[in-house]
Amino acid sequence: MPTARFLVEGRVQGVFFRASTRGQALSLGVAGYARNLDDGRVEVLASGRAEALDTLEQWLWQGPPAAEVTAVDREDLPEQELHGFHTA
What we know:
Elements lengths: L2 E9 L5 H12 L2 E6 L5 E6 L2 H11 L7 E10 L7 E3 L1
Parallel strand pairs: 2-5
Antiparallel strand pairs: 1-3, 1-4, 2-3
């Protein structure tokens, strides 16, 4: 499956960003994970249909209501077969 890594910047920790991302990813049929990074960003690794990854990327720019996203960097990776969507 197409796979991408997203780095999301802004006020994205402590605002239910990871949990909300998990819900969005599952609704799109996307597998992977969302985790907080020490520098305040959230890293999202996602694998799914190309259209689903594009939709997830658009959602990451919004995030949950309390988030204030300032940047989303996307890196397309070699295809991976991931299962489920986890938060760390």
